[in-house]
Amino acid sequence: MFITCRKAGCTGGINCNGFPTLLKLKNFYPYIRTKFLHPMALYKFTLLLHSGFRYIVMVLLLLAVLQAFAGWLGQKEYTEGNRKLNLFALISAHTQLLIGLVLYFVSPFVVFAKETMHDAQARYWTVEHISMMIFAIVLITIGHSKSKKETLPESKHRTIAIFYTLAIIVIVVAIMQSKRAFFGMSN
After folding, report:
1. Which of 13, 63, 155, 158 lies in disulfide reach of 150, CB 3.0 to 4.6 Å?
2. What is the pTM of this model?
3. Tell me: the pLDDT tens digits for 116-127?
């Protein structure tokens, strides 16, 4: 049994009030390492998370852009709902960046060698993809920050519409350059 109580002589039964601890950590660690911390398992999990989360990011960005254009061209007030949607789009993009950074360092496609710049696929995943995505997130961050400083509702909507649209264009181009399907999960 892996989990036992810290009390002397206790077997960890129903009446146990002690704190459980890992007794056979030496035997348990290889199982954890091979099943959960194996580099390919971490890579596959992070890849699925990154591939799936992109839909949340794109939906939030598209909703924010559509709402911003409607507010800008329709000269609508900048509401709390607008602010929250723009903030959620920003947060989701930054979360996607963090997941992508983990993926960057465990991916077998990212190669740090002299030959990287001569191999199109290695160059794309090592340099181009991450550069374009960071640039898109910088655009989102600048747009959100500038919209907070604006005083007129039309200016807030215009700033979000312009910067978030540019970010979406950069993201779509970066995904298209990978020569993978935009819809569907990456393998």
Report:
1. 155
2. 0.76
3. 899 888 899 999
